[in-house]
Amino acid sequence: MFYNEVGQFKTSYRADQALFPIRQDLIALGVFLIFLYAVVPFTFNNFWLNTVVIPTLIFGVATIGLNILTGYAGQLSFGTGAFMGVGAYTAFKLTTYFPEINIVILILTSGVTSAAIGLFFGIPSLRIKGLYLAVATLAAQFFLEWVFIQMHWLNNYSESGAIVAPTRTLFGVAITGPSATASARYLVVLSIVVLLTWIAANLVRGRFGRSWRAVRDMDIAAELIGISLFGAKLRAFAVSSFYCGVSGAMLVFFLYGAAEPNVFDINRSFSILFMVIIGGLGSIYGSFLGAAFIWNLPIIIRLIPLALGLRVEPVYTEFLTSMIEGALIISVLIVEPRGFARLWQIAREKLRLWPFPY
Amino acid sequence: MLDILHKIFVGPFIEMSHAPDLLVQVLWEGFVSGTLYALIALGFVLIYKASSVFNFAQGIMVVFSALTLVGLIEMGLPAWLALLMTVGVMYVLAVSVERTILLPLVNQSQSTMIMATIGLSSFLIGFGGFIFGGEPKSMPVALLGIPTGSMQFSVFNGHINIQNLDLAAAVMALVMVTTLGIFFSKTRIGRALRAVADDHQAALSVGITLKQIWVIVWFTAGIVGLTTGIFWGARSDVSFSLQIIALKALPVLILGGFTSIPGVFIGGLIIGIGEQLFEYYWGVQMGGGTQGWVAYMIALLFLWVMPQGLFGEKIIERI
Amino acid sequence: MILELDSIDVVYDHVIQVLKGVSLQVPRRGIVALLGGNGAGKSTTLKAISTLLQFERGEVTKGSILFDGVRVEHSTPDELVRRGCVHVMEGRRCFEHLTVEENLLTGAFTRKEGSSVIADDLELVYGYFPDLKLSRHSLAGYVSGGIQQMCAIGRGLMARPRLMLLDEPSISLAPRVVEEVFEIVQKLNHEQGVSILIAEQNINIALKYASYGYVLENGRVVLDGEANELRNNEDIREFYLGIAGEHRKSFHNVKSYRRRKRWLA
User: What sign has the CA pseudo-torsion B144, B150, B153, B155?
Assistant: First the structure.
């Protein structure tokens, strides 16, 4: 009824390929952005911002990163955690060497290092694909993890082996370090996320995105129509690692404040992969849905006994969480193997055809 | 600079030649962990062959079966009954996996299936921990009739120490690999398994019951997992950390080829021996703990030269 | 009748309706052709019969399928093979890493008779397809397309079916090989009494061997009749066989366009 596109005519291919071909989508997005910028920072308390909203946004970026590589270019990767770590450690080193440069710029720059490392570990994709390539990314994951632990230069020879985010300001307001308020951090994260998402959405529908999808769907055919396989794959690795790196840097600077190497371990890689698949392979907004689901699931599971007034031993909560999480993930996959994005798409198609069933 | 080069390219080899007995000992250690990697990888291969599912839960199946066994023995059951019941549990697990995961997700993409098995491993971690507790347990070796103690051999003016347990593990691994290899190539079920691996829809169309095949395969993988778990648990402890180590089955499979059973054995040995040698002669100078990644790097180097692995089936690609 | 479809609807993924009230019948020992262009719903119809549909998130929402007098739309593929209905899928689908002979043996998976009977059947299949015997030890992935198609049909035959569903046996084969395959199919029908439902785009050849035909368009049966009747049908000749009568067709003549449109509606 409200989702009716009658009367919206496209008179050029350009208009038909626009990011939001249906006007209602554009309006809905606008309203949502206004909500995120004008309502959330003033109404959500610190708990909500710190445990739900900020992490969802930050992991959303990592998920977009992996989605570009896995969902769009079809290259399975288990190294996301390590690439996030590269971003975090680079940002940390950069802040110690260039304390006067704005932290937001440093964080975005740290993605470049991550992209370079990602590029390096993407080179094997020249010769191998599928699960074989996944092993190459596992090599990256475990090797980089080891480097984070062994190279004390990376954490400035700190006693604990952890990196700690120093206090930095933007427009005179502290945005990192212990004195930064949750809403300040939130607004900075949101802005970076919106910018990166906008870039990603345009990348994947443009020339790059088309070449990635061609490589994913049938690499031989893609090569035959003149797409350089190696180039397309490497671009995917670089862009993907850039997003992961920025996400990792944001994680340390805007959320945790300090981090040890185990923040970026293999389980992190798995959880980001979960987000991608539950959200929907090859979908940008699905990335955020997946991140929101996977990140908040354990929080909700932990809250349920609290809300019911039950006392569960902490050891058991951990195991119960893991159990329920596993079961829920499998159920979601069974309901819709192509993730939330596909569910949303089906719902939208139904709305567009409403009141007709098919 | 020259010093570093010396440390990498000369030093370790001088060390090896000065103490050949030590070298043999390191090789043996590598050999044993290699056979255990091969056993884990064997579980992966079975499931991969029959359902094209890369089962990330294989590692946790190893831990889970061992935990069940130890847990049942701790409850006071005699060892043989506990063993039998564990086998029963693995069968129930196989059937439940078939019902709740494989059947509803048939025909889905590989990444979906991988995700489902990671979900399964998350479930099993929680389930196992909830029932048997999360702290590491030790395997009651004597009760299970596994030989203990060690043998000493003198070689090259020194002597090496061989644990009877390790020897038993190696023999067991060899036996399993051979039996399964024969089963796959010669029997009707084995042929059906390979058919399913090639094209499960076509297999359905000729009347092969996927469900039956899946249960057989997951059950067999569970038994292989139990065997691995017993020996691994006897060497160290039964704990969830084994789950990460189990990922080393991946580089093993890369070397051995995803579908070749004897290849798995060779792949396991290359990885096991390679990482022991590297850690002992090079890793220690780099700060140690290199076992975490050397296996993957070895696999990567091999892939570069031989993208199909050593024993992999030729990928038949028609254009 | 060995197979009766009574106005079945098939919906994929709960939203995409592919078949709309398809009815057809295959007589015992008969050869029936299911004709139509790409995406007309031929493969879906066959998959609905062999129940392979359920593995592609499709389901029969209305109507009934009777195989040998028993409703089978909620059955399983192995059950159907046991009852004697084998589906030879589109695009051959041989097990590439198995040898040709192993491929044939997998076809006998559901048989309980013991190896000597199966060995006899193997010889029988080799009798029909001498080419298969020559390449029995090569990997099925490496043999030519024609041999693969024969291997797929032979594999189906190993289950001793009473009804065979053949999905586009002519696909990507040379015309001469197509003839060869169809000749053998006809021989099987005559000598072994196997009823055959054949889905084909190659209407010319399908109608040459079949006795009855159904034409599918957009998931509906738009026309059916005896094979020679269909072959002489003006619409069939024009739309599928490309024979336009004595005169060259002019597109100024909108009559045929209207007729075509009426079909598709």
Answer: positive
Q: Is residue A202 part of a domain?
A: yes
Contacts of C15 in chain A (CB under 8 A): 346, 349-350, 357-358
User: Is the per-residue pLDDT at C259 higher than 70?
Assistant: no
Q: Chain A, 228-267: which have a CB under 8 Å from a chain B CB?
A: 266
In this complex, how many residue pairs, one in chain B and one in chain C, have their CB atoms less than 8 Å apart?
89
Q: How far C6 CA sits from the closest chain A CA (Å)?
A: 22
> What is the helix (H) or strand (E) element at residue B90, kind and residue range?
helix B79-97
Number of other CB atoms surrounding residue A335 within 10 Å:
11
- Domain membership of residue A53 (yes or no) is yes
Name the β-bridge partners of B11.
none
Residue of A nearest to C12 (CA): A358
Set of chain A residues whose Cβ sits within 8 Å of the Cβ of C11: 358
pLDDT digits (tens, 9 = 90+) for A23-78: 777 788 888 888 888 787 778 787 888 888 899 999 999 999 999 988 888 888 88
Task: Tell me how many domains chain B contains.
Answer: 1
Torsion of CA B213, B215, B216, B218, to 10 degrees: 120
CA distances from B81 to A60, B220, C35, C202 (A): 50, 19, 62, 64
Residue B319 has a pLDDT of 42
At A145, is the secondary structure helix, strand, or coil? helix
What homologous superfamily is domain C3-245 in, according to CATH? P-loop containing nucleotide triphosphate hydrolases (3.40.50.300)
Reduced to 3 states (helix: H, G, I; strand: E, B; else coil), residue A8 is coil
User: What is the pLDDT, as a whole number, of residue A150?
Assistant: 82
Q: How confident is the model at residue B318 (pLDDT cuts 50, 70, 90)?
A: very low
How is B200-268 classified by DSSP, letter by letter?
A: HHHHHHTT--HHHHHHHHHHHHHHHHHHHHHHHHHHS-B-TTHHHHGGGHHHHHHHH-TT-HHHHHHHH
Asked if C98 reaches chain B (Cβ–Cβ under 8 Å), the answer is yes
**Residue B108 touches chain C, beta carbons under 8 Å:** no
C-chain residues near B197 (CB < 8 A)? 97
Considering the domain boundaries, does residue B312 fall inside one?
no
Residue B33, pLDDT > 90, answer: no
A218: left (phi over 0), alpha (psi -120 to 50) or beta: beta
C199: closest CA among C17, C48, C12? C48
CB–CB contact C139 B316 (8 Å): yes
Q: How far is A215 from chain C (nearest CA, A)?
A: 23
Q: Which tokens is C118 given?
A: 């199966």
Question: Which of C214, C258, C249, C242 is CA-nearest to residue C21?
Answer: C214
Q: Nearest chain B Cα to C92, which residue?
A: B202
In this complex, the residue of B106, B198, B205 whose CB is nearest that of residue C89 is: B205
- A218 to chain B: which residues are within 8 Å by CB? none
Q: Is residue A7 part of a domain?
A: no
Of residues B116, B134, B307, nearest to A333 (C-beta): B116
Q: Are A218 and B317 in contact (CB under 8 A)?
A: no
The position carrying tokens 């036996």 is: B175
Say yes or no for a CB contact (<8 Å) between A150 and B286. yes
CA atoms within 13 A on the CB side of C144: 8
Structural domain count of chain A: 1
The range of the structural domain enclosing residue A139 comes to: 35-265
Is the per-residue pLDDT at A316 higher than 90?
A: no
The 10 Å CB-count burial string (b at 16+, else e) for A219-252 is beebeeeebebeebbbbbbbbbbbbbbbbbbbbb
Q: What is the rounded CA–CA span in Å between residue C164 and residue C107? A: 13
Which secondary-structure segment (H or E) carries C19? strand C16-26
Q: Which of A334, A354, A358 to mutate to test the interface with C (most CBs of C within 10 A)?
A: A358
Query: Residue B13 above 80 pLDDT?
Result: no
Q: Which amino acid is at C254?
A: V
Give me the domain span that covers residue B273. Answer: 2-298
| Residue A344 resides in a domain | no
